[in-house]
Design brief:
By secondary structure, the protein is of the alpha/beta class. It contains 17 helices and 13 strands. It folds into 3 domains: 141 residues, inorganic pyrophosphatase (n-terminal core), CATH 3.90.1640.30; 146 residues, no CATH class; 115 residues, Roll (Diaminopimelate Epimerase, Chain A, domain 1). The protein has a 6-stranded mixed sheet, with helices on both faces. The protein has a 5-stranded parallel sheet with strand order 2-1-3-4-5. Helix 13 packs across helix 14. The protein starts with a helix and ends with a helix. The chain binds cytidine-5'-monophosphate (C5P) and zinc ion. The site of zinc ion has 6 residues, from loops.
Length: 459
C-alpha cells in the first residue's frame, strides 16, 4: 500500500514542479505547521514562489477567498473534510482527516492524497506533515532531511497514543529519518518533558498515564522521589543514571498496581519515543512530543508564523518568542484543568462533558478534554466532550475518546460530522479526536444526538 501511495505522491510532485507560484493553506496546529513548513521549504528549494496561510478550519468564506485568489493551492492537514466544496479551485490536498461524506468521486481524484482513500486509518498511520513529506521527497530527495518535521506532526496529532508506538506509514518515515541520521526511536518513559522538566514536575503534570496521589501534587511528587531514594529531584529525566530510571519506573508501576490501576495504566508508562538528533539535548526541540507542544503553543494563540519559522530552522529570535508562548500555554492548560476540576464533569448517557464557556479558549479545549479523559476527574470508558465559546458567537465542541472504545466501534469523526451537520454546523476529525462548531444554544440537542450516534456505533 505504501508503494502505491508513493506513486500518488510522485504524480502530485510532478504537477507541483511544473508550477511557478503556489498558495499553501494549512491547519493551525502542530501537525499543520509542520506540514506547511515542509510544503514551503520543498517549494522554495525548487525556486517555486509561494505564499502560506494558516486556518483554523475551512469555512465557506475562507474557501471563497481562496477560490478568488485563483492560484494553485496546496492544502496540507486539511481539505478532505470539505472536498465537495472545493470545485473551482486548482487544488492539491495532502490530508489525513476523514473525507466529507458528500465528497463522492472527488475523493478518488489523484489530487487528493489521503490514507482513507487506501482504506487506511488517518488517525494513526500518517499525519498531515507525513503526507506533505511523502510529496516533498518525491519533489526532491534532498527533502528527506525533513523527516524530523514529519514526525513532529505525527506526534502532535498523538498518532502513537493508541499503541504507545508509531504505526503504518509513520514507520516508513522513521526508517528514512534513521537512514538520514536525523532521528532515532527508543523505548523510554513516555511522559512529557523528559528533556526540559525537573523530575518532580514531570510526575506532577503526568496525565497519560495519570498517577493517583501524585499527579497534580507537587509535594507528594517530591516525597515520592525521596522515599524511593532519588535525590536532586530538580534533575531532568535525561540526566538520571540508568539504574535510577529503572527504579523510578518500577516504583511507578508498583504505585499504579497498589492503587488498582494495574495493566491498562502501567502499560502506557514506557513506550516508543522519537528523538531528533540535530536538536540540542535538553531543549524543547529534541523530543518530538515537546517540539509539537512548542508549536501548539504558538499556533493556538495566533502565532503560527512563529512556529513555522522554528520548523524552517530559526533557533534565535523566533525560538525565544516560542518559549515565552509555551509558558503562557502551560498556564492556560493548568488553569483550564483547574476550571474543569472545580466545575466537574457531567455525565450524559454514554457521554461525559463539561462546558467551559469563556474560561477556556476554543483552540485548547480539546487538549484539556484529552487530559481530563485520562485523569481521575474523567471516566475512562466514556467519550468526553468539551464545549467552549468561540469568538464569533458560535460554540466549539471538542471530543476525545480512548483506544478501547475505538476498538469497540466508536468513530468520533463520523458522529461529530453527522450531528454538527444536522445542527447547521461543521464537524469532523479522527476516530479518537474530533471537533465541531455548532450554533450557540444547541449544546443540549448536540449531546442528545451525539449520545444516540455513539450508542449506535457501539452496537
Ligand atoms: O479542535 P479539536 O482539537 O477538538 O480537533 C480535533 C481534530 O478534529 C483535529 O484533527 C481537527 O482538525 C479536527 N476537526 C475537524 N473539523 C472540525 C473541527 C475539528 O476536522 N470542524
Ligand atoms: Zn493532522
Amino acid at each position: 500500500m505504501f508503494a502505491s501511495a508513493m506513486k500518488s505522491a510522485r504524480k502530485i510532485a510532478e504537477a507541483l514542479k511544473r508550477e511557478r507560484d503556489v498558495h499553501i493553506v494549512t491547519h493551525i496546529d502542530a501537525d499543520g505547521i509542520s506540514a506547511g513548513a515542509i510544503a514551503k521549504k520543498s517549494l522554495e528549494r525548487e525556486g517555486i514562489e509561494n505564499t502560506i496561510q494558516f486556518v483554523k478550519q475551512l469555512d465557506d468564506s475562507t474557501i471563497e477567498k481562496i477560490r478568488d485568489m485563483g492560484k494553485v493551492t496546496w492544502f496540507t492537514d486539511l481539505g478532505s473534510g470539505v472536498i465537495s466544496k472545493l470545485d473551482g479551485i486548482d487544488y492539491i490536498i495532502a490530508d489525513h482527516h476523514m473525507p466529507d461524506i458528500e465528497g463522492g468521486k472527488r475523493m478518488l481524484n489523484w489530487r487528493h492524497f489521503n490514507p482513507h482513500v487506501y482504506g487506511i486509518d488517518g488517525g494513526k498511520a500518517i499525519s498531515g506533515a507525513g503526507l506533505a513529506y511523502l510529496i516533498a521527497i518525491s519533489i526532491n530527495k534532498k527533502n528527506k532531511d525533513m523527516a524530523d518535521l514529519a514526525m513532529v506532526g505525527a506526534s502532535g496529532d498523538l498518532q502513537d497514543a493508541a499503541s504507545c508506538k508509531f504505526e503504518g506509514w509513520n514507520r516508513n518515515i522513521i526508517e528514512i529519518g534513521k537512514e538520514e541520521g536525523i532521528l532515532d526511536v527508543v523505548r523510554d518513559l513516555r511522559m512529557f518533558g523528559r528533556h526540559t522538566r525537573p523530575l518532580y514536575k514531570l510526575l506532577q503534570y503526568a496525565d497519560d498515564p495519570f498517577f493517583p496521589g501524585l499527579t497534580g501534587r507537587e509535594s507528594a511528587c517530591l516525597s515520592f522521589l525521596r522515599r524511593i531514594g532519588i535525590d536532586k529531584e530538580e534533575r531532568k529525566w535525561i540526566e538520571l543514571e540508568y539504574e535510577e530510571k529503572k527504579k523510578v519506573v518500577s516504583e511507578l508501576v508498583k504505585l499504579l498496581i497498589a492503587k488498582g490501576f494495574g495493566n491498562s495504566f502501567s502499560s502506557r508508562l514506557v513506550g516508543e519515543v522519537c528523538e531528533l538528533k540535530r536538536e540540542k539535548i535538553g531543549t524543547e526541540l529534541r523530543d518530538v512530543k515537546e517540539y509539537a507542544t512548542l508549536l501548539n503553543s504558538t499556533a493556538r494563540y495566533g502565532y503560527a508564523e512563529v512556529g513555522m519559522r522554528i520548523c524552517m530552522g530559526d533557533r534565535d529570535e523566533y525560538f525565544k518568542k516560542a518559549t515565552e508562548l509555551l509558558k503562557n500555554h502551560r498556564r492556560n492548560i493548568v488553569s483550564g484543568i483547574q476550571f474543569v476540576k472545580k466545575e466537574g464533569v457531567q455525565e450524559y448517557g454514554m457521554l461525559q462533558y463539561f462546558n467551559a464557556g469563556n474560561h477556556i479558549r476554543d483552540t485548547v479545549v480539546g487538549i484539556i478534554a484529552g487530559i481530563i479523559l485520562h485523569s481521575r476527574e474523567g471516566k475512562n470508558d466514556a467519550p468526553i466532550i468539551g464545549f467552549a465559546n468561540k469568538e464569533g458567537g458560535e460554540i466549539k465542541a471538542s471530543a476525545r475518546t480512548t483506544a478501547p472504545l475505538v476498538n469497540r466501534g466508536v468513530d468520533l469523526s463520523k458522529a461529530m460530522q453527522k450531528v454538527a451537520d444536522r445542527l447547521g454546523g461543521t464537524g469532523g476529525g479522527h476516530e479518537m479526536a474530533a471537533g465541531a462548531t455548532i450554533p450557540r444554544g444547541t449544546e443540549d440537542e448536540f449531546l442528545k444526538m451525539l449520545d444516540k450516534e455513539i450508542r449506535n456505533q457501539l452496537t
